[in-house]
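re: the backbone from monday

yeah here it is again, tokenized this time
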């Protein structure tokens, strides 16, 4: 299940790159595209790292925690810098899912990464819709 997150995230980045020139029609559309592009690039790598870390958690359990913390820090930074309210809301939703994954990990439970992937997909929908 965790590896299923990486493909939609990669497709999201590709989609954002494709729509970026088209969104230069207005200032607000351009700003939204820039916010979305920056967010997608930053968190796509982080989500892939979290997924890979949890896939390999039996080999290096500390890596999962580090990857999750990096994602959390990057989301905090993106949320502070986003000028688009829809993007900011999607980032907030992603942050909630990161917190859920972190709580499960702290309880030594296997976290369900699907809601994290769904929240990333929601961000993609906002950016491409």
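seq for it, each position gets an aa:
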């Amino acid at each position: 299940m965790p590896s299923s997150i990486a493909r939609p995230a990669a497709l999201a980045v590709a989609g954002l790159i494709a729509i970026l020139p088209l969104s230069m029609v207005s200032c607000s559309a351009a700003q939204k595209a820039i916010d979305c592009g920056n967010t997608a690039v930053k968190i796509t790598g982080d989500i892939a790292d979290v997924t890979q870390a949890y896939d390999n958690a039996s080999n290096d359990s500390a890596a999962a925690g580090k990857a999750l913390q990096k994602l959390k820090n990057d989301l905090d930074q993106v949320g502070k810098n986003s000028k688009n309210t829809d993007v900011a809301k999607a980032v907030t939703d992603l942050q909630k899912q990161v917190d859920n994954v972190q709580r499960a990990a702290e309880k030594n439970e296997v976290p369900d990464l699907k809601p994290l992937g769904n929240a990333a997909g929601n961000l993609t929908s906002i950016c491409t819709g």
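The CA atoms of residues 101 and 112 lie 7 Å apart. The chain has a mean pLDDT of 76.
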